[in-house]
Every structure is written in structure tokens, then in C-alpha cells.
Design goal:
Blueprint lengths: L1 H36 L2 E4 L8 E5 L6 E5 L3 E10 L3 E10 L4 E9 L4 H14 L13 H11 L22 E5 L3 H15 L3 E5 L2 E3 L10 E2 L6 E4 L2
Parallel strand pairs: 2-11, 6-7
Antiparallel strand pairs: 1-11, 2-3, 4-5, 5-6, 8-9, 8-10
Helix pairs in contact: 2-3
Length: 230
Amino acid sequence: MKQITFAHDQKASILILMLSLRNLLPALLLTVLTCQLSAVSITTRGIKNPAIYGIKFPGDTRAYYGKEDHIQSISSQEYITANFRVTELNIVTQGTALVRIYHSRPLRIGELQQAMSNAVDAASTPSGSSIIQRPLPAQVQAMADRAAGITDAVTGTEVMKEYPIATHAHTIEYRIGSRKELLELHEQLKKHWLKEPAYYEGGQIVDKSDAVETEMKPRHLGGTLFIVEK
């Protein structure tokens, strides 16, 4: 009788454990998914000085800290060089320094040639007339051929300087490995600088569905730490 009772209790315990794990699994999956979808981590009040904001990059030696009231503009742009397509974020501050954070990848076959062809057509074809494809100048074609020969995807985090095309004096540069993170960083910096409202819980920004308070409060760039993961 005791053996039967013990076996019954053991089965009941296993069943309870399985039900608990089944209920816990969606929460664990949601946590993992949230971590994967969150490319840039934001810590409100991550810096004790409310006048300073910071951006930390992968590695122990790459970080930027600046004064919020010294920012004059925050912008993003995309362009191509002889070998790379570059997406960059620029923070212009008071003084002579420019903060440049960028992501680059090798040009795909035909990208540079197409851009050069468009530029030649735009410069030589009257407005409203049909565009006629014409051979590119020899030097331009050579650049396009060189770009087409690049096969290795160089998307690391070491800064590449291409003087004087893409880099200028007094530039503080950071290179990151994810274009998605770069665009998200620009979006978050812009929202905090413009003090766009958000929902807060425990001093941190949360989604509307996770907020207890219904009142939105303005974001603040000062005191905020942005962490780039890649």
C-alpha cells in the first residue's frame, strides 16, 4: 500500500513539475526574444552626472562620454566609397570635435558602377530627356572593377580611415558591426535629445503594455548610458 502511494505521489510531483515548466516556457522564450530584438541597451540614470550621456561599444577600450548641452546636431547618412557602402551617425558638438559612428560593408557587384553611371547621366543628360547608357570613363570603370572583386565581408569594429574621402581632422570615430544597431542608436539618441515622451517603470523606459503608470514622461539624454552590443 505504501509503495502504491509513493508511486502515485511521485507521478503527481512529476506532473506538477511538467505543468510548471510549461507555464514557465513562454516567459523564458519571451525573455530570449526580447534580448535578441533589443540591439541597443539603454540605461536611464546609468550615469550619475545628469549633464553627461555615454555610449559604450564592445571591448573595454571603446566608449564616448559627452555633455548634452554641447550637442549641436545629430544626423545619419549613407554613401559609397571606392570599395565600401557606409552608413554613419554624426554627432556635432561645440568646439572642433565631430563624433562619427559608422558601419561599412564591401560594395556588391555593380553598386559602384551603377552609382557612377547615374552620376554621369545626371551630369550630362538634359532634364526631361531619356537616359542613354554609355561607357564609364576608364578610371571610373577601374574603380568599379576593383569594388566588384571584393568578396570578403569586412564588417568588423576596427576603424578604417580613407583620407581624405571619408575622414577629416578632429574626428572621434567608432565602427560597429551591425547596421541595424547603428540605425537604432541614431533613433534612440534622437528621441532622447528631443525629449520625446515615453513610459517609465522603476526609472527605466518600458513598453506601454508593461507600464503601470499611464502618464508618459519626457526622455532625457543627460544621465543616460547607451550600450552597443556588436
